[in-house]
Amino acid sequence: MDTHGKKALRVLDAATNAKRMGANEKAIRLYREYLDMVDPSFTHGVWNSMAEILFEKKEYDNSLSHCNRALELMKDFIPALELRAKIHNALGNTTAMEEDRNTINKLNSIEQAKWDDPNHYYHYK
């Protein structure tokens, strides 16, 4: 891994640690720094982490925007769908909340069906 990649991982680790310690402003700043360093392809988790912080601060519209960005990058990302359902609930958007919950239930059913199918590749060793 090149030096730039190692630096990006250090910044991401520092952001995650700051979030864990409750230093939310520092975490968001570090997450944004990380986003500036990497290709957006696999940053859905970072966008969701920032959305969680914003949700805790009751910045629901901003949190929703970050959740939506995570879902643009990975449409079936269940943690972002779960958080978005909470945000919709907090905003009183019950129809949107139910749509997200239905999507989560559908995705969980699909995944469970894979585990229930003895011929699915999950069971191959």
TrEMBL record:
SUPFAM superfamilies: TPR-like. InterPro entries: TPR-like_helical_dom_sf (IPR011990), TPR_rpt (IPR019734). This is Tetratricopeptide repeat protein. It comes from Leptospira levettii.
